[in-house]
Amino acid sequence: MSRRALTRLRTRVKQMLRWAARRRRTAAVHTLRGICYGLGTTTVTLAAIWVQRHT
After folding, report:
1. What residues contact 1, with CB distance under 8 A and at least 6 apart?
2. CA 55 – CA 43 distance, rounded (Å)
């Protein structure tokens, strides 16, 4: 890579890191929501399988 390309890459990475730092709380909330949806879906699925096998 050329020196100029490396400089642009570093600049872009820094911009992305700053963007992520500003939105950390929002990202954390969305991650928590996704985990909760996943756990809820898994629980309902396992309950449905259990009911099907035991009835």
Report:
1. 9
2. 18
List the structure tokens of 27. 């990202």
CA distance 23 to 15: 13
The average pLDDT across 3-10 equals 91
CA distances (Å), origin 27, targets 18, 22, 23, 42, 51: 13, 10, 6, 22, 36
Q: Give residue-wise pLDDT tens across range 24-45.
A: 999 899 999 999 999 999 999 9
- Tokens (6 digits) for 47: 């309950």
The model carries a pTM of: 0.58
Of residues 53, 34, 52, 30, the one with CA closest to residue 42: 34
